[in-house]
Amino acid sequence: MSLRTRLASSPLLSKRLVVIYLLLILGVTLFLFVYDGVKESADLSSFDVPVKTWAQSHQYGPLTAAMRVVTDLLSPAAIGALTFIGAGLWAWRKKEYWRPAVTVGAVSFAFIIASIIKTYTARARPTVTDLLGAHAGISYSFPSGHTIGVATLLFVISYFVVMQRPTLRRASLWFALSAASIILVAFSRIYLGYHWITDVTASVGLAIIILALVVAVDTYVRRRRTRLLQKRL
To answer: What number of other Cβ atoms are within 10 A of residue 122's Cβ?
Structure first.
């Protein structure tokens, strides 16, 4: 049975729908839980100051330099440029346009949503004097643009890569790599004093929601293409 035929089969479609619903529930629940805590100054937000204080107490030269490199290389501007360039090369080399276009759309949507929520919540960042780096013209704190950009890009790429050859080992490897990278970026933002732990956690929740939307749209398009192909045969 071909991949396209399997994608159109009812058992696999049901499994994909379950995955979509689970991702939506997880992402929405995580984001709303954090958002409510931020608005009420409760729940996870009670860890904001202690985590910030802990990070500050462990600052030292080499680590600070490393965190600055991480946060600079994976800034929203850098992630946006990397996504567009990578998608262009992907489309050119592989002669396909759907997956590169979806990746660009997902990352762009992530930054737009983050910008809207930042403006709506208007949450102040940690004390400016605590920032280890430039702080002129910085935006609001909630959510973290760095974290949502990296998380969305890695989640979407991982999904497309794993779906090429779906195996537990492959999925586990990509999940571990994505999780490690996201944690590193999130930690760098807290360590350098630009964000609270609730900011980066909410960003992960939003990225999971976007991943669910990508899986849903990709499933619909794949099934539609399969049906059109079957009608031609």
So the answer is: 11
Cα separation, 146 vs 118, in Å, equals 13
pLDDT tens per residue across span 45-97? 888 989 988 888 888 889 889 999 999 899 999 999 999 999 999 888 888 88
Q: How far apart are CA 7 and CA 78, in angstroms?
A: 35
Number of residues that this document lists for the chain: 233
CA 162, 168, 174, 175 torsion: positive or negative? positive
pTM of the model: 0.86
Rounded Cα gap, residues 17 and 216, in angstroms:
8
Using one digit for the tens of pLDDT, what is the confidence trace for 112-166? 999 999 999 988 888 755 566 555 456 788 999 999 999 999 999 999 998 888 8
Tokens for 233, please give them: 């045969």
Helix (H, G, I), strand (E, B) or coil at 38: helix
In contact, 147 and 117? CB cutoff 8 Å? no
Nearest to 187 by CA among 146, 128, 139: 146
Half-sphere exposure of 171 (CA within 13 A, CB side): 6
Return the HEC string of 86-141.
HHHHHHHHHCCCHHHHHHHHHHHHHHHHHHHHHHHHCCCCCCHHHCCCCCCCCCCC
User: Which uninterrupted H or E stretch holds 10?
Assistant: helix 10-40
